[in-house]
Amino acid sequence: MSRYDADLDLALRMADAADAISMERFGARDLEVTTKPDATHVTDADRAVERRIRDMLADERPDDAVFGEEFGSSGQAPRQWIIDPIDGTAHFLRGAPVWATLIALAVDGHPVVGVVSSPALGGRWWAAQGSGAWKRGEGAAPQRIRVSEVADLADAAISYNSIQGWDGAGRIGDLVALQRDVWRARSYGDAWSYMLLAEGKVDAVGEFDLKPYDMAALVPVVEEAGGAFTSVDGEPGPWHGSALATNGVLHAELLRRLAR
To answer: Could you give all domains of the chain from N- to C-terminal order, each with its CATH number?
Structure first.
């Protein structure tokens, strides 16, 4: 049991509502795609999903603050819901299934509830502080998940998510050096990399050029699965523009390797 069970239940219901909207628009020939001022894409599905989640929060948690990718911040409160309606919009608009709705609740700045719903992949992952991390595949019963116990970089599988992100941060040399020393390096992409970490199928994920809504829902899942989640510089939480998530055993070594 967790003190946040009711909030987790709400987050899961919001994910159900989000999946119904996003899957109806996934692959639609009339999908509306525009470009935001930061040159990233947004679809009518992104906006519709966030509107629906905000409507549910207005009904059931009217005193909580909300921060979403498409409609910004509203309210000021110790409890803040953080929403990425479709993480991986570039995949979504191309018809690739690697995208997810990310829903988090942060209390005093620390994410304590996280739901990652990937209906096109047939998977959903969730966690609330103190109650473990869980996964449900399509048509399957929920199962508890746990990070790996890999303790040596030479045996580790890592996901770097985006060469462009590492290059833009001036870290391409670090990435190349790291790839030489690990067992396997791949770019699985977006939230899925972190869920593979929580399941013990990947041992570390590193990424740059991120916003809080890209990370907040991932933090409880990784932490409740036994892993560690900081910025690449070792700062806790989703507020510092980068992510280093590991099985915990490898965290100190990777922070040392990536330290400036």
So the answer is: 5-145 (3.30.540.10), 153-258 (3.40.190.80)
